[in-house]
Amino acid sequence: MKIGVVGGGAVGMFFAASLAEWFPVTLFTRTKEQADKVNQQGIIIEERGTASVHFVQGASIDELPECGLDCLVVAVKQYTLPAILPLLEKTGPYPALVFLQNGMSHIEMIKSLPQKQIYVAAVEHGILKSDLVRINVRGRGKTNIAVFRGDQQAVKVMTEQAKISFPFQWWEDYETMLLGKLAANTVINPLTAILRVPNGELISNPHYLKMAETVYQEFTAVFGKKLNEGAWDEIMHICRTTAANHSSMLKDIESKRPTEVDAILGYVLSQAEEKEIALPVSAALYHMIKGIAYGKKE
To answer: Structural domains in the chain?
Structure first.
């Protein structure tokens, strides 16, 4: 099974390096510089004080349509996805596609793709990118995955082969699965980014916890009927197990990169507007993040 991974960020490199233990993997990167370094040095994973090197093929994203892959894992940020879609269309009805984006706004984008087998996934691993070939594993979890189009068969070899050290968990309904991740992202990301605190402070500080509860209550007002009833407990579990970690949105702001606030809070607010539900706290957080990003441009 030939696997490709699109995206040279922390998650993309982690997937490429991890899956290379069982399969031939090509990592498609935005820059030739990163692809060349991957070919020269491999991907270095640092975890619990040790480092391991994993060799994959590095290639420019422009080479994607000609590669003849069986499975392609799309690990770019939500806001980068529109630029990638034309390349995915050129690959034809195959390979199987696995999308790892935060939020849910990508669901509309991928509906028009020609591939017969499409999957969406929610990643629980905590990964930090150190440089072009080096990542740090801050916490291992699993990858939740569900069928968006087709059936499980096209990626069954991948999910079964890798399950011992790189586990996947299948969900029957992709919307319920993604809503659970969206709930966590909606509560944790904006608050930690604005307050400039690690994830654990959302539960150790009673005032921050009250804010988190309020954001979650607004989220359930929009999605409560479809949300897994254990979603709040899962958010608290994430905060505890990643207590020292900085959320992806906080890291984006610290690094002056674009955030995924539109894919996360923006999506929540758009769904609330359709249902004529007011979310005053979530709206305030959304504009705070947008305001911080706007200020970083100046």
So the answer is: 3-172 (3.40.50.720), 176-297 (1.10.1040.10)
pLDDT digits 0-9 by tens, 185-232: 999 999 999 999 999 999 999 999 999 999 999 999 999 888 888 999
Active site residues: 181
**Threshold 0.90, pTM exceeds:** yes
Which 3-state string (H, E, C) describes the chain? CCEEEECCCHHHHHHHHHHCCCCCEEEEECCHHHHHHHHHHCEEEEECCEEEEECCEEEEHHHHHHCCCCEEEECCCHHHHHHHHHHHHHCCCCCEEEECCCCCCHHHHHCCCCCCCEEEEEECCEEEECCCCEEEEEECCCEEEEEEECCCHHHHHHHHHCCCCCCEEEECCHHHHHHHHHHHHHHHHHHHHHHCCCCCHHHHCHHHHHHHHHHHHHHHHHHCCCCCCCHHHHHHHHHHHCCCCCCHHHHHHHCCCCCCHHHHHHHHHHHHHHCCCCCHHHHHHHHHHHHHHHHHHC
pLDDT digits (tens, 9 = 90+) for 224-263: 888 888 999 999 999 998 898 899 999 999 989 999 999 9
